Amino acid sequence: MLISRETSRKASPSSKPRRLCAALLLLCVAVQPVAAATGVLVDSPRRVVGIELFPAVVVPYHRGRYRINGVDLVVYYTAADLPVPADAPVVQCGVRTLRVIPDPLLQVRVLVHDGETIIFAWDTDESVDLCDILPGFLSDFDFFREAVPEDRGAWLPAALE
After folding, report:
1. Lower Cβ count inside 10 Å, N or C end of the chain?
2. Which helix (H) or strand (E) holds 48?
3. DSSP β-ladder status, 116-123 and 71-78
4. Interatomic CA distance for residues 1 and 113, integer angstroms
5. Would you state the pLDDT for residue 84?
6. Distance CA 72, CA 70 (A)
7. Which comes out higher in pLDDT, residue 56 or 140?
8. Over the chain, what is the mean pLDDT?
9. Cα atoms in the Cβ-side hemisphere of radius 13 Å centred on 4
10. pLDDT value of residue 30
11. Angle 128-117-119 (CA atoms, 0-180°, nearest 5)?
């Protein structure tokens, strides 16, 4: 016998707390709400000049791309005040008002947030519930903006939930 009965008895009581912890962990995971959409940053933010959605305006901006349930969501942000038409349709996401920019190939939403202009764009054939991910995105965006104010490229969160 490789393990004596005495060693076996000593090891036995410690296995109960481990099993209990494992059971509690599984229970916690089982009751966690499942997010409707989870996104992952697949292209890290990079500084570029001239947003292709606003070809007449040459402004510095940062751009990152997320993958959410198989859909690419491109996020642009800049401190510049972009010329969004005053008569552009509006979409409400809770208390946030986003402007809809017509584009034949993309769904485009523009949000002015604490002096930053944030643009969300995705393929017109795809569906993204922007209102679902916007609160978490803005919370993380604000956190990174406060944590590293000098590095605008680090403000995009790595994941969206």
Report:
1. N
2. strand 39-49
3. antiparallel
4. 69
5. 82
6. 7
7. 140
8. 73
9. 3
10. 35
11. 25
What is the C-alpha separation between 100 and 120, in angstroms, rounded?
Answer: 10
Tell me, what's the pLDDT at 62? 85
> Which residues are paired to 122 by β-bridges?
107
160 in Cβ contact with 68 (< 8 Å): yes
Residue with tokens 């002015």: 112
Give the list of residues 6+ apart from residue 15 with CB closer than 8 angstroms, or none: none
Mean pLDDT, range 4-14, rounded to an integer: 47
CA distance 82 to 117: 7
* pLDDT beyond 90 at 107: yes
Give the model's pLDDT for residue 123.
92
State mean pLDDT over 109-126.
90
49 vs 114, residue with greater confidence: 114
| 118 within 8 A of 133, measured Cβ to Cβ | no
Residue type, 74: V
The stretch 82-107 carries a mean pLDDT of: 90
Question: Using CB atoms within 10 A of its CB, is residue 3 exposed (0-12), middle (13-18) or buried (19+)?
Answer: exposed
- CA–CA dist 40, 64 (Å, integer): 10
The whole-angstrom separation of Cα 53 and Cα 88 is 14
Record the tokens describing residue 63, joined without a space.
């751009």
